Amino acid sequence: MNNRLAELLAEVFGLRVSEIQPDLERCEVGLWDSLKQMDLVTSLEREYGIALDIPEILRMTSVAEIMAVLKGKGVDLGS
Length: 79
Known about the structure:
Non-ribosomal Peptide Synthetase Peptidyl Carrier Protein, Chain A
């Protein structure tokens, strides 16, 4: 798990960094509603200098999917 991404997600969702794992899904995070999804989008766009389109935003329903979308945008998340 990429530390930079884990810290960003922990901040957006009000979780501890240790709770951010690839298998974490939207339904498991009480604060991950539509408003938080938009906070997530703006945070990711700002942090990584990317622009996300609607299909990518809708696809991001888990940490693993967020990572896949970022990798698809050319973001280097390490191994």
